[in-house]
Amino acid sequence: MRRDGRLSGVLHVLLHMAEADGPVTSERLAGVMGTNPVVVRRTMAGLRDLGLVASGKGHGGGWTVACDLDRVTLHDIYVALGSPEIFAMGHRSEEPECLVEQAVNASLAAAFRDAESLLLSRLRDVTLGRLSADFHARLAKRGLCGQEAPSDDV
User: Fold this and answer.
1) What is the pTM of this model?
2) Nearest CA-CA partner of 47 in 84, 14, 94, 93
3) What residues of the chain score a pLDDT lower than 70?
4) Domain boundaries, the chain
5) Under CATH, to which class is 6-141 assigned?
6) What is the C-alpha separation between 146 and 130, in angstroms, rounded?
7) 3-class secondary structure per residue, the chain
8) 12: exposed, middle or buried (C-beta count within 10 Å: 0-12, 13-18, 19+)?
9) Taking each helix axis from N to C terminus, what angle separates 26-33 and 37-49, rounded to the nearest 10 degrees?
């Protein structure tokens, strides 16, 4: 089963956008995300509706970060993406007649709830600013501090 990488992809491009000197086009972001510019525009439009990004049209236009990175959490971005399903796993049957399967479902449901609650709590604890600080620490450790960041994708 294919994993949903939208949250990771959007976080990736938001941090690149935060480092950019100006607007970044949908075409350039599509290259980073490995998708079509139309998908980028649709995704970014949802973020724009929540005030997380802004867009400009025409020559010199594109997408820019419009929020305070220290105030926006990963959970905020997760919600802006429509709160996608966290787990690909589920029950074989939602309402089984078999008592064994009912016991299995009850145990798995409790485990899934606990795991989802923990993950969502952790997403609330991490801000975009913290991710940006982590990036800068990694950049400094690599010895590129004061030099332009490698821009293999944006």
Assistant:
1) 0.80
2) 14
3) 1-2, 144-154
4) 6-141
5) mainly alpha
6) 20
7) CCCCCHHHHHHHHHHHHHHCCCCECHHHHHHHHCCCHHHHHHHHHHHHHCCCEEEECCCCCEEEECCCCCCCEHHHHHHHCCCCCCCCCCCCCCCCCCHHHHHHHHHHHHHHHHHHHHHHHHHHHCEHHHHHHHHHHHHHHCCCCCCCCCCCCC
8) middle
9) 110
Structure token pair of residue 129: 């600013």
| Per-residue model confidence (pLDDT) at position 75 | 96
Residues present in the chain in total: 154
Which structure tokens are listed for 134? 């982590």
Assigned token pair, 84: 């996608």
- Backbone region of residue 4 per phi and psi (left: phi > 0; alpha: psi in -120 to 50; beta: other values): beta
* Contact predicate 23/64, CB 8 Å: yes
Q: Which two tokens stand for residue 100?
A: 């064994």
Residue 69 CA to residue 52 CA, distance in Å, equals 9
Residue 27 is encoded by which pair of tokens?
Answer: 């075409």
Q: Are strands 53-56 and 62-65 parallel, antiparallel or unpaired?
A: antiparallel
What pLDDT, on a 0 to 100 scale, did the predictor assign at position 80? 92
